[in-house]
């Protein structure tokens, strides 16, 4: 009797099996989230040493720790931009307004209010979020190429405002040079060595790395929430999303604001990293660079834009400084004055990736990994089939001999 009563109750109320299923789904999601955070933390912790200090690898890459920090800052920017381009399908040419605007806001805040790094990041991010709200409210009235042009126009307006009418505040074409960053929480000077110095370097890298892991975690939570699902639905078919009752404009605005928030964090960290805000941080080329980084790494993927930012900055900062292209560990010169061709090299890399691997560097990694796994799986399956056939043949042989023996 208890079974007869209990089963219908569980089915109707969901208090039995459904709770277990919900718990399992929750723990599965938490487990995957923990894996993402742990992998990101380990990768960020090892990266500067691998890039600048590790034997053999660092000799080939010729990297340095300052560039590793800058790569993480741009990675945060790229992750946020991909939320808009890769997951919502909106191409903005005006994200320099949030990156550079936040950089200026952070710099001015540090000079006029306080140089506490956390408050500086908060000030820059707040400016970017508010500005993204206003700019998104105006630009999202139009779609497609008109949206892209509107964002570009607003960003260029901000650039010219900073270069001339607001020069008394931004220092015009010379950039803002009065950035004053104080020790973190009044204790930790970001320029001093952190624990595990051989691995992490200075506290500045640790400070940026914490924000990077936090950005990855936050983006992961967004993409695995109902908001992320709606973003993808809008990207796939905006009209169908409207037909099912979703307020598409509101979700697009929220995606735009979230993307601006990531750009704000990155722009603020850029100011702390360089103690300087160049006027070029508001120029349209910054918007173009973040588009290239995101597409190069792979739109619509969590980790792709990080790789795209890394490759772009590597070519821009390392390859551009090469006097000659030589065979590693030898003095044999292949191309002299190789650094002057870095734009061509970057263009070739971009064309090859876009044409050969439309899902970017991350998609290429996924395809190669899948190919290797499939090859290994097929090999194991082939071995299993051979073992089965041999086993069957052996059984038939034994059976034949057994029958022969009976005869």
UniProtKB/TrEMBL annotation:
Organism domain of life: Archaea
Cross-referenced PANTHER family: ABC TRANSPORTER ATP-BINDING PROTEIN (PTHR30482:SF17), HIGH-AFFINITY BRANCHED-CHAIN AMINO ACID TRANSPORT SYSTEM PERMEASE (PTHR30482)
Name assigned to this protein: Branched-chain amino acid ABC transporter permease
Cellular component terms (Gene Ontology): plasma membrane
Topology within the bilayer: Multi-pass membrane protein
CDD domains: TM_PBP1_LivM_like
Compartments it resides in: Cell membrane
Residues spanning the membrane: 34-52, 64-85, 117-138, 145-162, 203-223, 253-270, 290-315, 327-354
Keyword vocabulary terms for this entry: Cell membrane, Membrane, Transmembrane, Transmembrane helix
Major location category of this protein: membrane
